Write the structure tokens for this entry.
Amino acid sequence: MIKVNGLYHSYSNDDNYAVKNASFQIEKGEIFGFLGPSGAGKSTAQKILTGLLIMQQGDYTIDGKFVDFKKRDYFNKIGVSFEHPNVYKKLTGLENLEFHSGMYDVKTEDPMNLLRMVGLEEAAGKKASDYSKGMLQRLVFARAMINNPEIWFLDEPTSGLDPTTASRIKDIIKRKKEDGTTVFLTTHNMYIADELCDKVAFINEGEINIIDTPKNLKLKYGKKLVTVEYYDNDRIVNNTFSIVDEAERTKLNEIINKGNIATMHSQEATLEQIFIKVTGRGLE
Amino acid sequence: MKGFSKLLKKDLILILNNYFLYVTLFFAIFFILLVNFVIPEDTSIEQSVYVLSEYEEGNKLIDYFKEQELSIRTLDSREELMQYMVNDFNSIGFILVDNQNVEYVLQGYENEKTKNLLALNIENMFQEFTNQIDIKTTYLVENNTVQKIPFNKSIVPLFLVMEPALIGLFLIATMVFSEKEEGTIKAYAVTPGRMSSFLVSKVVLLIILGFISLFLVALTTVGTKANYLYLAAITLTGSIMGSGIGLLLSSFFDNISKSMIWIIIIAMVLSLPFASYFAPNFSPALIKSIPSYSMMFAYKEALFPTGNSSIIGNTCILTFIIGIVTLILANLNIKRSL
């Protein structure tokens, strides 16, 4: 289990904190989403947990043991997929993965297998400078899997990908979760968070406002209404019923029993609507 | 070790793909061509001296001048002397009229000082000839056969200093900044690989480039007479110093444009001793304290050995210490500007 307690970070070493008193815990095999707009502090938090920024204040433990970034063994356990496609442009996709595979002291994945998984096997021998933005993103994603990480840090993993490729990447993340990988996912994309995350934390101006499962958040902040389109004497009627009010619920039951329903939607809130409600700010 | 060999392999592929190796080879080949085919071996301009003797005893004096290794040409008539001088602008002539009188023939552009100097000179030679003054010379080291270094070969040490200390410094800084701008250094920082290995790989790279350049240039300009063990030692420690300075510099900035002014300042400081190489009288303590100063003379000693090997040892120790200190500082500082 990952436990983070009282995390602070200031780039200017003063009271102007990019991350302020962030505390959360992630169970093994859980996908934990850090949801927030650009500049909210989610990437800063990820950089601290990956050792790219010095931990100025706070505790970070894994299974009760404090993480020591000076001992390089921690880095055998983590994989990091950056939002910016930071690969060697003058090397081929395969050379990039082969180079990284040589950096680990643990058993690594076959680079070609990884390229195949993300649909880059045909571009394996091409220089990364000839890759499109989406291909580079996939290469970075594949690189993050090279050491079979126990903890996987993913920063906007589907950013800039077409829907088919994004779906492929999401499937890989789900499979890794099933294999027991703990995923720390930072994103401003509410759909990704909703679809993948077991728990989400809303972060705004460096502070975590709320942590819960997407389902609980929707139940808590969504309206308990159902909108129904149904046939009434050959004409379509559109109506919204409260599922809390007894009379309206009875009427809804009658319509359902008649079997004249054309469409029916629950009026649950999206994560973005909840984010706005909680933080007073949008996700973009 | 496995990680380090992968780092080095990656850096080698990058210098091939970034054309850094070709730049090094281009400079080396350009310099070789310059030394062997463009720059003359001797750039000194000697004045021609034409002499005419109009009396019998004068010929003995001319023979004496020739014994003193003065390059003079004896002519038979005034007309011939005049003709030769008209055709050779950089010449003087004198006519031995009798044992009391000498007549100078000048081009006309000589100033008063030169004329007086010439008069004094010929007077001295007459005195030497008539009195046969014996000048005894004592040498501190017997059998010291120091050969004159041809001018074109004498500039080889400067190129060898330039490779690790100036070009190398710039190449290494460029490589690190390229990794910072692409963000690949961040991707490396989240692996178990150590930042010190990342830096040492760059040092080894510069040593390889330095050796390629050294052997290419030294073998094709000076040949096998040089002391290659010494040359390799100076290049090794010089490369450690050059890359150390380049890495330290690049650890303070996140892109090359921010560091450019410092690269230029350091390159200029390291080039200052070049002036002392051609004008040894100009070597103030400040210039002597710049490591490229002793590197130049250490390379010169290794290329054209005279037996003064202490300068090589001292230079290697100095550049090695500077290299190690700058590398340690770069290692401590580099993570601050990821």
About this structure: Chain B has two domains: 2-40+150-337, 48-131. Strands of chain B lie at 48-53, 72-75, 91-96, 102-105.
